[in-house]
Write a structure and sequence with these properties.
This protein has a domain of 33 residues. It is mainly α.
Length: 51
């Protein structure tokens, strides 16, 4: 029988991996930027449609 999943996963210690090296932080920031761009383009489109 296998041990529980959380016991098998080896997470890196905070000293080994900083937030700057974590690709998830980069991709989360990129998703946030793209969401802001998408929202601003949508608002501009609504502004042109109303005008």
């Amino acid at each position: 029988m296998n041990p529980p999943l959380f016991k098998r996963i080896k997470y890196p210690k905070s000293s080994q991996m900083s937030d700057n090296n974590d690709p998830r932080v980069y991709f989360a920031a990129e998703r946030t930027l793209l969401a802001w761009v998408r929202s601003s383009l949508g608002l501009m489109g609504v502004g042109f449609a109303v005008d």
